[in-house]
Amino acid sequence: MNPSKEITERLNKLKETINHHRYLYHILDKQEISEEALDSLKDELFKIEQQYPELITSDSPSQRVEGKPLDEFKKIKHKVSQWSFNDAFTEDDITDFDTRVKRFLSKEKQLGNRVSKLTYTCELKIDGLKIVLEYEKGILKTAATRGDGKVGEDVINNIKTIESIPLKLNKDVNIIVEGEIWIAKSIFAKINKEREKKEEALFANPRNMAAGTIRQLDPKIVAQRKLDCFIYDIANLELGVPSNQFEELEMLRNLGFKVNKYFKHCWDINEVISFWKEWQKKKDKEDYWIDGVVVKVNEKDLQDKLGYTGKAPRYAIAFKFPAEQVATVVEDIVLQVGRTGVLTPVAHLKPVSVAGSVVSRSTLHNEDEIKRLGVKIGDTVVLQKAGDVIPQIVSVLKEMRTGKEKEFRYPEFVEACGGDGKIEKIPGQVAYRCVNKNSFEQQKRKFHYFVSKKSFDIDGLGPSIIDVLLEENLISSYDDIFSLKKGDLLLLPRFAEKSVDNLLDAIEKAREIELPKFLVGLSIDQVGEETTIDLTNHFGSLEKIQKAGFEELNGVYGIGDVVAKSVYDWFRNKNNQHLIEKLLQQIKIKKSGLPTPHKLKLKGKKFVLTGTMEAMGRDEAKNKIRALGGEISSSVSKAVDFVVAGENPGSKYDKAVELGVKVLSEEEFLKLIE
After folding, report:
1. What does the pLDDT look like over 245-277, one tens digit per residue?
2. Which residues are catalytic?
3. Boundary of a domain, candidates 560, 589, 618
4. Which of 108, 152, 170, 384 could in theory staple to 256 by disulfide, Cβ–Cβ 3.0 to 4.6 A?
5. What does the alpha-carbon distance between residue 67 and residue 65 come to, in Å, rounded to a whole number?
């Protein structure tokens, strides 16, 4: 049956409307209708196209996630060679660049005084993955990675999942553009957190995640990671490009591309340096990583005269921000046993100061990371620390090798695993774990976690005291902590009567605990703080969680197959059942305090907390929000409903103001949760 005129008109209107709201939301950061309303329009479009397949076109919004996973990517030859930039790292470097540019152009006598008056356009250098897009008559035709500059990989199915990349331009032009695929900090952190819960390898940096995502063979996986893209250059345009770089960026924006809004026309190299210094201070406020400023001669005819060297344009340079890097030596690589038995390789380093602190350890994550870096014991390595990120080994200085370096190989046995010390590779993962699930090292780490702030929060009972209690056989099960007597503790070294009394008081105060904190202290594999809150919100009591079947657990919002099976199996284990029985003889689980559904006044609302609050601590504020149905986010984005700002709120406050997210003072927040 052929579609009627009314059906065709309805379909075209749906496409126009969906594209309009996509452009508003993903390009202009504006929103006129809710995401639910937009989803219903997409659903109607999809149903019409399913009924009339002949109406489906390549630029339809329904085609953003399509097709079966590929076996491999096809190669695609670039119509325009792809170059990389040379780097500048200091003010002297960028001044030298300015001198080179003017010296080269001064050979062209007809340019006259234009050389001394040339200007620059500065653009933020986004830490992501380069992409090359070709449009024919305004319709996206190909999308390719940079590759070797001559040949890249055809990733168009994956690119279509990125909402900020238009499938159809505002004008029917033939054009090739270049841009940067990136992933938001908030999404990067969320994905790594989920991978950590599953004990999967973490992505080392956002560029790796963006590159790894774009090279997924299944576009549905790409769509889930919500990549974004800034377009910054026209490689080829049949009508000819504008006369300067600044106008070119404006043209890209008018065609419907997402262009980073922080570009600036600078009248001389000193203004370039000022822009670079300004963004060193401001870069961390954005939800994407910025590793420098791209500086381009603004005038296009001068760009053409400057041309290219063998590998890079003469008219542009990447002015990189200072990296906090140092070189040091890997003295050893040891396997550290986690509380769930997973073995993490840790590099023991020659102590070195980086970003203001002395560092002697750096995690190597897993076997794949060791192979990727090619690191050996005895190697000289580059260690990098940026902001609050844990120092990471980013490269090996292989030219420093003497031949005495040793490769690290996973052993068959690890003493800290206890018993016979056997280890095994976790099926489907790159990680290893102890076969023995009850090694002394694991027991210590479980006890450390059990008494920590995240669980029972027993003040004064730190890791060193737990270790002594275990070594002296005063505790062997969690419930033993609550049966400790003064006489037991006074026999231990460095325990005075006052400190013993304080510790026993702290243990007494910990006898009442909320259900999420109780659950997190049990060290159930795959279960972290957020999962325990999901379980509590769904079931409301420990008894219901214990009795829940696999299907019921799997149906809890935020919990998947792996976590559901882990929780189900843990509560079916007789030893664990006995552990809980003994614990419940010593402690009391407070009522969850979950309000009835109509009292979940913050349900569906997402909060970010920043700064210091006077009336309550941050953990208490988070618990109040969760108890009323709200969610907590660690970073500010358009998806956040409220930012609660205490004293000295910092960059999250600035981000909220910039995005138009509602900011609550402490007083306003307290009124909201009354």
Report:
1. 999 999 999 999 999 999 999 999 999 999 999
2. 125
3. 589
4. 170
5. 7
